[in-house]
């Protein structure tokens, strides 16, 4: 057995020296990572601070209780009640359509497709959909739903456009979470004679639920801020329309767009407050999803 020693004859001193060098390198890399993280936070915090400071000017009950009906661009007052209702309805419809389709697609790709041709085609299609610009999704719904089928502008048409954007994001997030579930859990369930569908429903999905909900909320956050497809499918209105299948409907992104293009201070203040409300809604939805996922997390995880 060879003993590692230094010129001074102390066994193990070289190992100590190497270990010290590695610790220094490790600490140096940690400092670089923290520095990069801090640098990345600077623009993010700057944007957030700007939105909060400017949005607080009109963050009052009037903003949440009234619409822009009969309110001119230069007039004080007015609010985004119609836009908030429209955004919540459109995102809810989008989620009800997108999440089941996307989750079932991810389950098929992970649990059933294997190396089959159909699985490869679906996976390729999802990749293509991921790169579709949002305005193309809006143009597709405009051409098919409104011009070909003859339907009018509506919140449902906007939800269809957002569905095209949301499905691939949820599919990829759910697929990655399902792949992280250990195969030992599946094999243990199969060994007990449990059918595959029950294994997926009661073993695989609960294990991957937390990560899947996180992916779904990221997709919701993305589509909730889209403007271009909504301008093409729901148009814009200043009045309250709580019926998502009949007539033009407001939304927070289009409300911000409409107010920001008017160069007077009252409109600019309303646009900033609309942006702040949009951020707060996304934050509250994420917190609610985290809470639900934490409550339904399997024991021991």
3D structure, described in words:
The chain contains eleven helices and no strands. α7 (183-191) runs antiparallel to α8 (196-224). It is mostly helical.
Summarize this structure briefly.
The protein has helices at 13-55, 61-65, 81-113, 117-130, 134-148, 155-179, 183-191, 196-224, 228-233, 252-260, 265-295.
Give me the count of strands: 0
Residue share in helices? over 70%
Protein structure class: mainly alpha
Low-confidence stretches: 1-7
Shape: globular
- CATH class identity: Mainly Alpha
Percentage of residues in strands: under 5%
> What is the C-alpha radius of gyration, as a whole number of Å?
26 Å
How can the largest sheet be summarized?
none
| CATH-defined architecture | Orthogonal Bundle
Q: How many H/I helices? A: 11
Mean pLDDT: 88
State the distance separating the first and last CA atoms.
45 Å
CATH domain fold name = MetI-like fold
Subcellular location: Cell membrane
GO cellular component, one term: plasma membrane
Membrane topology: Multi-pass membrane protein
InterPro entries: MetI-like (IPR000515), MetI-like_sf (IPR035906), Phosphate_PstA (IPR005672), Phosphate_transprt_permease (IPR051408)
Give keywords.
single chain; 301 residues; mainly alpha; MetI-like fold; 73% helix
List the helices and strands and how they pair.
Elements: H1 13-55, H2 61-65, H3 81-113, H4 117-130, H5 134-148, H6 155-179, H7 183-191, H8 196-224, H9 228-233, H10 252-260, H11 265-295
Organism: Actinomadura soli
GO molecular function, one term: phosphate transmembrane transporter activity
Subcellular location: Cell membrane
